[in-house]
Amino acid sequence: GDSVTQMEGPVTLSEEAFLTINCTYTATGYPSLFWYVQYPGEGLQLLLKATKADDKGSNKGFEATYRKETTSFHLEKGSVQVSDSAVYFCALTRDYGQNFVFGPGTRLSVLP
Amino acid sequence: KAGVTQTPRYLIKTRGQQVTLSCSPISGHRSVSWYQQTPGQGLQFLFEYFSETQRNKGNFPGRFSGRQFSNSRSEMNVSTLELGDSALYLCASSLAGTGKETQYFGPGTRLLVL
């Protein structure tokens, strides 16, 4: 079945450091790919998405490119802030019925 | 536009009891999905409803059930609660539940089973 693999962390960075969180997936066909973020005590918020190969999703300084050839959707940010501390989830969905498959989540802590 | 709302936010039950959780989607959204989030298993899909019909179901026992009303509000029910059912239950809504749509999540209901 479909699956998503991502580095689980925790990842600890200093403010203004460069961030990469790796995400790879296994799925047939052409899934849509998403990054969601979860702040403490809250639900998930969409960070960015890409619906076809070579699409780049971007939001709030975060970027990810849908790479069909490497089945990857790595999340990057050039300069993290303390407020970016959260858990980040990579996810895919392939069909009607919104059966999202999530990765295990990566906890990011940014220190001032 | 109001976001996805879930009630109650917190719940404590004992083993063997049953529980009903409620989710109100964003106005105009007709697809509602439910997820269970635990530290050990992560986020797992429970089921999805669209126009009062269950379209998709995850790999959970029959103790987990749900329904959707004509106004798109949804409820999920867990009968004969077990300790392992302690989790954060998240509801998400989207317009029509296609694979390319964004799902908007509620804040969740945290269930503790004692």
Q: β content of chain B, as a range?
A: over 45%
Oligomerization: heterodimer
The major beta sheet of chain B can be summarized as: 7 strands, mixed
Total strand segments of chain B: 11
What is the alpha-carbon Rg of chain A in Å?
13 Å
Approximately how much beta-strand content do the residues of chain A carry?
A: over 45%
Fraction of helical residues of chain B:
under 10%
Number of strands of chain A: 12
Low-confidence stretches of chain A: none
How far the N terminus sits from the C terminus of chain B, by CA atoms, comes to: 37 Å
- Report the total helices of chain A: 0
Q: Would you write up a description of this structure?
A:
The complex is a heterodimer of chains A (112) and B (114). Chain A has no helices and twelve strands. Chain A is mainly beta and 112 residues long. In chain A, a hairpin with a 5-residue loop joins strand 5 and strand 6 (44-50). Chain B is mostly beta strands and 114 residues long. Chain B is 0% helix and 53% strand. Chain B has no helices and eleven strands. In chain B, the strands form two sheets. In chain B, strands 2, 4, 5, 6, 9, 10 and 11 form a seven-stranded mixed β-sheet that branches. The radius of gyration of chain B is 13 Å and the shape is globular. The termini of chain B are far apart. The chains are: A mainly beta (112), B mainly beta (114). Chain A binds chain B through residues 31-32, 34, 36, 41-46, 49, 51, 89, 93-105, and chain B through 4, 31, 33, 35, 42-43, 45, 48, 50, 55-56, 58, 90, 92, 94, 97-108.
Summarize the topology.
The complex is a heterodimer of chains A (112) and B (114).
Chain A: E1 3-6, E2 11-14, E3 19-21, E4 23-26, E5 32-38, E6 44-50, E7 56-59, E8 62-65, E9 75-77, E10 86-93, E11 101-102, E12 106-111
Parallel strand pairs in A: 2-12
Antiparallel strand pairs in A: 1-4, 3-9, 5-6, 5-10, 7-8, 8-9, 10-11, 10-12
Chain B: E1 5-7, E2 10-13, E3 19-24, E4 31-38, E5 42-50, E6 53-57, E7 64-68, E8 74-78, E9 87-94, E10 104-105, E11 109-113
Parallel strand pairs in B: 2-11
Antiparallel strand pairs in B: 1-3, 3-8, 4-5, 4-9, 5-6, 7-8, 9-10, 9-11
